[in-house]
């Protein structure tokens, strides 16, 4: 039985959340519900479902599906979440969520921090 | 510059969040703020700070430090978060957060699901 | 450009390797080539290819495809790697690699260590 | 007992290995032993030991400690691994391994691939 538990645990898998996202989500205008929603999307994508419905997402959250739709819309408007079109092998068009704008936004924050730090060093060295 | 970004990104690191936690936190009585708080604790531990203060935690969240203290107390009472004592190499006593009860709780949920599924199979096979 | 790099980096993804595997692979009879081969299989599975060919695997390694076939056979015989049958949505049968026996083996090692430690404690307490 | 297993498993932790490293290590001149050695260093760093000895590293590998020292030297010469100096809180100087040159090298490979792809697209569009 013990072994089955480890096997199921490993097969359920993990999502990798950049520490930068944890440190910066507030700065880029997100709250904890929106953070959790993004993590749920990552978790569904990881499990092979690239376009979970608001019902599927809300089913794991303490919000209902219409509140969930509202948050998804807001994240798309904020250009943190985007919806991309794909073509399956059979030529069927499908939609999927992409978090690439989120990673790009975090990269921007990182560059800004580096520049600020550089500036600070320069100012300190001048004196 | 590009390379620096990747290096900083990798050095900032990632936290690993079990998909099971994403699927079950609601069932074990947590909401999105409490989930985020647990992830912040994981993120601080990962960065070497095993006992972040309510101020440090709240500083990254959309709640203030007294609300944060309240949530920490609640998580300890729910036996999801625990505070352990350690002894440093120099013999100094220190406190640290432990999430082992959370992992144990998720393991319980997993066993329960397996048992339910086993039961369902048995029932289906009887007919 | 910088941002693109982070986005590509995140989209290329990561594999999660249990520290236990790093600590125990030698004990369970594996060497570095076999460890690397298992990690390549994990990496292909993560990218959606659940049954990479010996050619695809060897293409990323410093061995040729016949040596790779030999190692795959050995890992299957050692019951560390297994090949499972699946049915696609269209009813087409397919094969895929599974690492569940590897996780089960590591869980065994962990239990054995715990028992040994327990035993040691008991022996020490007796004196 | 089952629960203990999951707790120990989670506490042993995981290392995150970029898929890019798996795809490119051969191209940047590494073999499977050297890859494994880098992963062991990551695993020790993750566990809080930033400067494992050749004996500690070789202890988990199928090589002896003098072969291990040789490989460490080679990785440093290849500028894939570097040794940095740090100062502890008590003002004691210490050495630690850094993998930042490895991440930078992988970022280079990624940029090169992107440029090649861009070139290919441009060439194809011209015809």
Automatic annotation (TrEMBL), chains A, B, C, D:
Domain DnaD N-terminal positions: 17-116
The shown residues of the full protein are 1 to 127 of 233
Which superkingdom does the taxonomy of this entry point to? Bacteria
The record's comment on protein family reads: Belongs to the DnaB/DnaD family.
**Lineage of this protein's species?**
Bacteria, Bacillati, Bacillota, Bacilli, Bacillales
- Protein name listed in UniProt: DnaD domain protein
């Amino acid at each position: 039985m013990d072994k089955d538990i480890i096997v199921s645990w490993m097969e359920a898998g993990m999502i990798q959340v950049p520490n930068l996202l944890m440190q910066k989500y507030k700065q880029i205008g997100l709250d904890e519900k929106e953070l959790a929603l993004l993590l749920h999307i990552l978790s569904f994508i990881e499990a092979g479902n690239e376009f979970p419905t608001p019902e599927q997402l809300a089913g794991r959250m303490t919000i209902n599906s219409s509140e969930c739709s509202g948050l998804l819309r807001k994240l798309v408007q904020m250009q943190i979440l985007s919806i991309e079109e794909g073509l399956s092998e059979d030529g069927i068009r499908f939609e999927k969520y992409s978090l690439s704008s989120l990673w790009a936004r975090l990269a921007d924050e990182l560059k800004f921090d580096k520049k600020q730090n550089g500036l600070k060093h320069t100012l300190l060295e001048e004196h």
